[in-house]
Amino acid sequence: MTLLLFSKLVRLLLKEKMEYRADFVLSAFAQIISYAGDYIVIWLFMKQFNSIAGWNWPEIALLYSIGLFTYALGASFSFVQMSGLEGQVREGTFDTLLIKPVNPYLYLISRGFNLAYVAHISISGTVLIWAIAQLNLQWSWTDYVYLLLALISGAMIHAGLLTAIGATTFVWVRTGYLFSLFFQLKEFISYPLPIFGTVVQLLLTVGVPLAFVNFYPAAFLLSYETSLIPHWAKWLVPLAGPLIYGLGYRFWMYGANKYQGAGG
Amino acid sequence: MSIIAVNGITKTYRQYRRFPGLIGSVRSLFTRQYTEEDAVNNMSFTINEGEAVGYLGPNGAGKSTMIKMMTGILVPTNGDIKVLGVVPHEARKANAQQIGVVFGQRSQLWWDLPVTDSFDLHKYIYKIPDSAFRKNLELCMSLLSVHEFVQKPVRQLSLGQRMRVEIAMALLHEPKILFLDEPTIGLDVMAKDQIRRFLRTVNRERKVTIVLTTHDMKDIEEICPRMLVVNKGSLVYDGSVEDLRAKLGSERKVIIDFRVDPGLLDIPGITLLQDEGIRKTFLVPRGESTVFEHVSRIASQYPVEDASIESLDIESVIRKLYLQLASEEQPISKIG
Fold first, then answer.
1. Distance CA B130, CA B134 (A)
2. Quick check: B13 and A99 CB within 8 A?
3. How far apart are CA A246 and CA A231, in angstroms?
4. Which of A50, A163, A217, B233 has its CA 20 to 30 A from that of B195?
């Protein structure tokens, strides 16, 4: 599928969204308020305790913002698409995807590209920039490059995991609880990993590797020790995204072939 | 030249047992317990270029499954299938480029946007050259009078208008074969007529091969010289409407209007088809006594207002075929 087709789809999506302008603006507004609330809760918490596992408020804000920013970026290409797959498979509209001369995965994620995440992106992006400024970090350009790579990788981790969950639709049809499980786990990465026990740390590192989204990149950028990943592996961390996304995509395509075999 | 060749195709749905809850679904993943059901069973047929074929059968006969295998949506469990020289599910994209598919119950249009936007996107997806796109659009617009509502959002269209648009869109990339799954379902008589006329034109003049499933026998009569009838996954009839009528329609339908309701009539040799009180419809086999003799015998016993004799319409022929098929499986409920 060409970039041209993607831009064509985005233009149509924008047009479609503008049919319900008020709804779009209101829900974006609601999202910003809801996440602002989350920030305030963490801020109040930090005012009380000053630091969690040695991380102060701007550092926690940086950690949380990387998590939210990458989630928004990854989810705009995957969440609605993958959670909606259940309905599409049940109603048979997924069939119409397989009769187009395009890659069904790429078409699905582009067709469902969710512009509503602009709300998440703007609030988390703003806080992220504020936190970096606040911390008065003496970053070299490699640190900025590392942050950029971490953001891309984090988005890919989110998208990859959501894609993998979506792929289970082809076998089980019902997937709602897996998505809620994902969001439960995602709650954990709002805080530095060391506050959790070894089991949770291991789970978030090797089981559902959400710690690679924000904790490991932030820890390396802020020069914190991490017990599970040695310092020399710093530059390997941003590889987690492409790896997980690649696996998620493979799994999804495998699932789609299963669908072709089993017929929903 | 055959452009669809189906050879010994079987499609078995394997339904794994599912367990409730989160732990249950993990268990479901590893379970080996399943039930199998053949939706299509050892089916073989060929369709030649330029044909218009009606594919029909009772609900659950495996019609949609066969269409989905021919369009590359599903992979057959067994057998060979070739559409335009390629195996549809293996060369899914190449196949998609060459065929048009219309689902009567599933829209492929953008619900909130004007029709033109869906057409425009279709042009990109199928990489249709400008000139061909304009030409095909013109043709479809004039034949289906789509131009009246081409600027309206799809959600504001009536079902009849929407179906016309769906069909027009499926033809924009000049497919060699057009598959239609129940294209006239839920439409009014006028809309059905227009779609049938259009499909006939597309088939006869543009030589597009048509394969359609339907429950409306008029679709078959008006569009398809050939029909394939399936039942329980097997092909039970392949031929023309006329031949089937000749084979099964050696019966006449007699509608008798009585002056007063004679109650339940049991006349040996003929079957009561429909009972609406004073109007009763009988099925009279051509045999020793003629239709006329039967009618006059009834008239001598009951006060008859009017009687009319009809040849079996295609619907009754098909109904008879289905009933016959059902009776072959359950000899007790034998009809006629």
1. 6
2. no
3. 25
4. B233
pLDDT reported for residue B202? 93
Mean pLDDT of the B33-62 span: 89
Interface test with B, best of A99, A178, A179, A260 (most B CBs within 10 A): A99
Which residues are within 8 A (CB) of A233 and not within 5 positions of it... i.e. 6 or more apart? none
Q: Please indicate if any CB of chain A lies within 8 Å of the CB of B299.
A: no
Residue B258's CB is within 10 A of a number of other CB atoms, namely 20
A253 part of contact set with chain B, CB < 8 Å: no
Which ranges constitute the DSSP H helices of chain B? 21-30, 63-70, 92-98, 115-125, 130-144, 159-170, 189-205, 217-223, 241-248, 291-301, 314-329
A262 contacts in chain B (CB < 8 Å):
13-14
Give the number of other CB atoms < 10 A from CB of residue A39. Answer: 17
pLDDT for A136 beyond 60: yes
Residues of A in contact with B113 (CB under 8 A): 12, 15-16, 19
How many CB pairs lie under 8 A apart between chains A and B? 79
Q: Which residues of A touch B171 (CB under 8 A)?
A: none
Q: Tell whether B36 is within 8 A of chain A (Cβ).
A: no
B247 in reach of chain A (CB within 8 A): no
- The distance of B182 to chain A (nearest Cα, Å) reads 14
Number of domains observed in the structure of chain A: 1
The CA-based angle B265-B270-B271, given to 5 degrees, is: 70
Q: Per residue in B137-177, pLDDT tens?
A: 998 888 888 888 899 999 999 999 999 999 999 999 999 99
Cα B141 from Cα B306, distance rounded (Å): 48
Give B227-252 pLDDT, tens digit per residue. 999 988 889 899 988 788 777 766 77
CATH assignment of B2-245, given 3.60.150.10, 3.40.190.10, 3.40.50.300, 3.40.1000.10?
3.40.50.300
- In sequence order, what are the residues at sequence separation of 6 or more whose Cβ sits closer than 8 angstroms to the Cβ of residue B46? B2, B4, B5, B6
**Does the pLDDT of residue B326 top 90, yes or no?**
no
The alpha-carbon gap from A69 to the nearest alpha carbon of chain B, in Å, equals 30
| Both structure tokens of A153 | 């990788």
CA B311 to chain centre: 23
Q: Is the Cβ pair B121, A12 closer than 8 Å?
A: yes
Q: Which domain holds residue A183?
A: 3-262
Instruction: Say if the Cβ atoms of A100 and B125 lie within 8 Å.
Output: yes
Q: Please state, in angstroms and rounded to a whole number, the distance separating the CA atoms of residues A46 and A40.
A: 10
Residue B49 has pLDDT above 50, yes or no: yes
